[in-house]
Specification:
The chain is α/β, with parallel strands linked by helices. The chain folds into two domains: 2-127 and 203-268, Alpha/Beta hydrolase fold, catalytic domain (Rossmann fold); 129-196, no CATH class. The protein is built from twelve helices and eight strands. The chain has an eight-stranded mixed beta sheet, with helices on both faces. β3, α1 and β4 (49-53) form a beta-alpha-beta unit. The longest helix has 14 residues, at 70-83. It is globular.
Length: 269
């Protein structure tokens, strides 16, 4: 696996590339950044040519020019795929990255072969009330909080509590490596840039966009998700063609619990 960078409209897109076969594009959830030693990417590279895209504003990639919104973000992502001649591809996205994957599939349905979205953000109101309030607070007090958060991120004693407050993330012994990687990602990112990427979330509602998705789609959601409500009925009513699967786990463990083998099986079958 190789770490590469591509300039799109003055935005540097950092991505991990490797493998052979059909193209698979992956988008992480917040605060994720893919790296060359990511075991999941190594696994997927056995079956696909992998392009694991680090989302602008979350650390390794640059920031969107001006005030970011979903349309600007998708314009950059679309130009990224065009510049690399990615004309037919599979998609996997988790949480924030699931939102991007679904939106990309709705904008370019002819290009997407199959799609997996794990706990994707589809509608801001599908966040639980606590999460909505935290996001709105971060947005409204961004300038005031940015300095405070920067100090919090430096404290080993406080950062675990802060991460739990904003994410409801619980980790078991088996997830400790992933958890520590997320902590490192949070510490590495620019706080102001990250807040900018949250600023447009209250306006997100992809329900109508989902009707434009033509690829067979697997949508995974967690039974014990403390981050989002169970929105399967709403989504199922709009796009009954989607395969909806409830996994008995928390938000952050969906991919782990469902299993990478099952993800590949869905994409390849």
């Amino acid at each position: 696996m190789l770490e590469e960078n591509l300039k799109i409209d003055k935005v540097t897109i950092n991505y991990i590339h490797g493998g052979q076969g059909d193209i698979l594009i992956l988008f992480p959830g917040w605060p994720g950044n893919f790296s060359v030693n990511d075991k999941d990417l190594e696994f997927f590279s056995r079956y696909f040519e992998v392009f694991a895209v680090n989302i602008p504003g979350f650390g390794k990639s640059g920031t969107i020019n001006g005030e970011p919104d979903l349309d600007k973000l998708m314009a950059v992502i679309t130009k990224f795929t065009k510049k690399l001649d990615l004309n037919k591809y599979y998609l996997i996205g988790f949480s924030y990255g699931g939102m991007i994957a679904l939106k990309l599939a709705s904008l370019h349905p002819e290009k997407v072969l199959r799609l997996i979205a794990a706990a994707p953000l589809i509608n801001f109101h599908y966040f639980k009330l606590k999460t909505q309030l935290i996001i709105r607070l971060l947005i409204s007090l961004g300038d005031v909080l940015s300095g405070i958060i920067s100090q919090i991120l430096k404290s080993d004693r406080i950062i675990d509590k802060f991460y739990f407050l904003i994410s409801n993330y619980h980790y078991k012994n088996g997830d400790l490596e992933d958890y520590n990687r997320n902590i490192a990602n949070i510490r590495a990112m620019n706080v102001n840039s990250c807040m900018d990427m949250f600023a447009f979330l209250p306006n997100v509602n992809l329900l109508n966009d989902l009707k434009s998705v033509k690829a067979r789609t697997l949508l995974l959601y967690g039974k014990r998700d403390n981050f989002m409500i169970d929105y399967s009925h709403e989504v199922g009513a709009v796009v009954p063609s989607f395969d909806l699967k409830c996994i008995d786990c928390e938000h952050w463990d969906i991919i782990l619990e469902y299993g990478k083998d099952n993800l590949v099986k869905f994409l390849k079958e």
